[in-house]
Amino acid sequence: MLLWLYAYRSLLARIRANAVTMLSVSIFIAGATIGLSYYLSLRSVVVSVPDENIVVVSKSAVTEGDSKLALESARKVVLLDGVKKLDNTPVAARELVSRVFVASQTVGQYEPPSRLRGIDDRSVLIHHVKIVEGAPPKPNSLELLIGRRVAQHYPHVKIGYEFPMPGGPSRVAGIFTADGGAFEDEIWTPRAALEIHLNQKRTSSVTLVAENAGRVGEIIDKINGSKELDARAASVAEFRANLLGLASVARTVLLLLVMLSVVAIFTIATTMSSAVATRVPELAALVAIGVRRRSLGWTIFLESALLGLVGAIVGVIASAIVISQLGYIPIGSNPIDIVNSPIALTIGLALGLLAGIVGGSAPAFRVRRLNVLTALR
Asked: Which pTM does this prediction carry?
């Protein structure tokens, strides 16, 4: 108990220097937590995809929206060996992807276009989406399904709302969820309806479902190695990861964590070393009256850990506030909804405590080797 009280009194005595240290740590933790939350939000777009799903686009396409897959190629890929069958029919969806502007009720506010997907009969099944409100579009209609995040971002777009489209007014028939995945940022309509709106009949992509995850690589190799098919295939998870640049984001987040960790540790170590230097006579006097050097070393170590922990708590709170205000960040055609992740917040607290522990180790070791006679002269 006395150890805690002495550490608390020592921290209060150097309140200004400690405030600067805690501010540095809090900035580090806030930046690290926001970076981690951003990465985890991107990652959730990928992990929500079933392992068996394969996307096929035209060979030169980077995104589904860029793809113009030949109808003949689309017909052939669904017949490949290894594609799952249901009632003797391949489990596949041929889809058309475009974009549409949703009118905002805020005057003068620019909104990026939302992705408009022309779906097949089995798209809902293949993409594992769930209709939570209303009903799916009726066959041969111009009706729409909207993703959950679209509905949240545009509160006026409700069931019954009509979009002015080139082929005629399109009424919202239902709202769906996709386990937090990218589809929740999309608007769906029957492919035939989208072909009417675009005044052209074509295919952007085909999504196949393999019999099992083990056959995914085999099917992808067949498509990519075929000279007859002007097509490129990848697992949906890999396709999205490359599209969102997850590898680059991961490297950037890691580099950010390393740099900020070094800064935080250096700041704490500098503060604690300065504190020890100014308190050498005081510490030597305590040793002279019988206080163990080991106990004093633990006191310095405890002070450093407290600085790191308090700074981490402030940083985590600040990051939570910033993230709650960020909302959507557009990444290409996919707006990413950054949310406060318990994992990121926990890691943020742990990093702050770690910075305090590492930063206080050297000053604590120095105190444990204190020479009383030299310090009291």
From this structure: 0.68
